[in-house]
Amino acid sequence: MATVAQWIEGARLRTFPNAIAPVLAGTGAAAGVDSFDPLIALLALVVALSLIIGVNFANDYSDGIRGTDDSRVGPFRLVGSRSARPGAVRNAAFACFGVAAVSGLGVVALSGQWWLLAIGALCIAGAWFYTGGSKPYGYAGLGEVAVFVFFGLIAVLGTMFVQAGTISGFSIGAAVGIGSLSCAVLVANNLRDIPSDRVTGKRTLAVMLGDRDTRTLYTALALVPFVITVLIGLRNSWVLLGFLALPLLLIPLRAVIRGATGRYLIPAVRDTGFAMLAWGAITGATLAFG
Length: 290
Fold this sequence. Notes:
Belongs to the MenA family. Type 1 subfamily. The chain crosses the membrane at residues 39-58, 88-108, 114-130, 137-161, 167-188, 217-234, 240-257. 71% of the residues lie in helices and 0% in strands. By secondary structure, it is an all-alpha fold.
């Protein structure tokens, strides 16, 4: 049986910035229009974290039973390492989805936006079918699109909307920035796994594009948020503080551009996530108070 430490590692703590950053940015945008609601913001954070842990366990389970993780270079996997029974990992994923659903119900009840139940159901379905089911869309090169939509647009704009009842141009910019960085995290991860994914038949976008073009895509996605920073900065100069997150991207950008492969790309995945968290926190704070 897997140890507690292995279960924690299987939850992939390094992916938590993908869940935390959009809530910070969306809440900052809501506070900027005097609509900050701490309880709804907290529940939104629980939803986001539950979903990211759930999708991580779901991926661990689905990739594990397919044998995709048997020869991977990346971090520890519960099923692929045979440390935990597949059924236990699947049940852990479903439990996380249940927590997300209950917390999301609280968000909907407090905000009065009952139509968002459909969006919540879509998010849970998207988390499971990323690598689950007979035709997972993550195996068809659509993972980056889903990440941009779910952890960018829906997460940021949804967080603002349930607190403010509206969305702003600033929040749209923040959603695009967060979505781009979240995609960059996935692109770096899939760049590392191109050799093993080709062998197992996992056709990620990185596999389809090839090594060189995937590196170009990562670079473009990593820089998009700072273009957004300049654009928003024309109206709110405090947002230019978002450039403080740029140094966190210098090392992963150098690794990707200079051709790092395999385990040497693991820090690039982690550091891109840290940069996203920093950019989301700074952008959210400056939208709130700037």
